[in-house]
Write a structure and sequence with these properties.
The complex is a heterodimer of chains A (217) and B (209).
Chain A lengths: L4 E7 L7 E7 L2 E7 L5 E5 L13 E3 L2 E3 L6 E3 L4 E3 L16 E2 L1 E4 L2 E6 L14 E9 L3 H12 L3 E4 L2 E5 L4 E8 L5 E8 L4 H17 L7
Antiparallel strand pairs in A: 1-11, 2-3, 3-4, 4-9, 5-6, 6-7, 7-8, 10-11, 12-16, 13-14, 14-15, 15-16
Helix pairs in contact in A: 1-2
Chain B lengths: L4 E4 L4 H13 L4 E4 L11 H6 L7 E4 L2 E3 L2 H10 L11 H17 L1 H12 L5 H24 L12 H11 L12 H11 L15
Parallel strand pairs in B: 1-2
Antiparallel strand pairs in B: 1-3, 3-4
Helix pairs in contact in B: 1-3, 1-7, 4-7, 5-6, 6-8
The chains are: A mainly beta (217), B alpha+beta (209).
Bound molecules: FE2/S2 (inorganic) cluster (FES).
Chain lengths: 217, 209
Amino acid sequence: MTIPGWSPIALSRDIEAGSSAGTLLEGQEIVVWRDQAGTAHVWEDRCPHRGMKLSFGFVRGDHITCLYHGWAFEGSGRCTGIPAHPALDVPATICATTYAATEAAGMIWVFQPLGDPAGPPPDDATVTPVRSLVLDVPLEAALAALPEAFEGPLIREGQVALLDAGAVQLRIGLQALSATRSALHITALGAPGTGLLLDLLERAQWLRRLAGEEIPA
Amino acid sequence: MSAPVLSNYDLDDQCYRLRLTASVAGVALDLVNLDAFPGRDHLSRGYLAKNPLGRLPTLEHDGLVLCQPAAMQLYLAGLPGARALIPADPAEQARMHDWLIFADRDLAVASAARACALMDAPGDEVALRARSRALLRLLEDHMTRQGTLGQGYVAGATLSLADLALFVPFALSRDFGIDHDDFPALRLWARRVRRCEGFITMPGIPDYH
Ligand code: FES
């Protein structure tokens, strides 16, 4: 079920300048990449040339380049270079499909439904990133396991779960990868110490078991 | 002294692990290229005399014959003039061994999954992939913890043999149907490994980044 509005798709710190990654949002393939100047871009994960995944590509300067035949795209989505035709002035109509994206509260967000113009920005907060956790269960099942894992009550606000874990307040970005898989982008308000962060990581690992994943022994 | 000799097949993941280790350690290696597919050179009488299980690679040096990749890595890293890839601190060194054994005992399924996917080796590809993915998640958990501790590598704050051993199955995971989307900590770590001096690639690992 699509809730119109901003959806978190990654922790900001996990997408370094000059890198790209693929992800899913309700089954739709998207690529998130950060240019060297630090701006994050979220696009359809599909090269306009032959439809290969742009997330397999590489970022140079302010461009992402497709791995397959080297078409290069600038931040606006426009194709600016085709290696097989170096002299060609690339027509402005050759464009990757871009989505409204922003960063706030330690996460990268995309606006849903994908392709719609952005609404008012998501709430910001000063946080410490903990980790993203990918689970092989639907988002609702992941949400249901959270209070037990972190021993605290949970309030959902759109695509964010606010969880009072006692010693620390968690702000968890909720991403439905598909109908059967989900990602939790876990952040903690303020600047908890290393010991507290390690405890949160152990709880996040235990969440996998609570969500029904088996130990790969 | 002559260079160690590696019986090599370019597309084999464990052969790449050794070429990578030698390159990063700054140790020269003589490669003897075998035709494993389709030639089955690794099952020839001459090769089996050195490596009775018929596994790739084999490392030979001055009469020493090694059949286990981790032992080969340790040997290369211990040669005079090799770059330090074995932590001096006993705890870090033990952690390196812990993860080297994980690479060989547990993540051997990733090699099997890849052989199954690419070279038609026998095995249940779906089960091997699922298990490889679950094990890579354990490594993801470990590297997430390392990041929180301010340690960028598997055994500690510096590159060790464990990073080179574990980089291989992660970097090649797309060969057997596991993409990197679900592994943010491993993506950051793999970028770090790629930037180390002497890093080399193999077919299946693009040399950009
Ligand atoms: S598919 Fe992207 S450049 Fe050809």
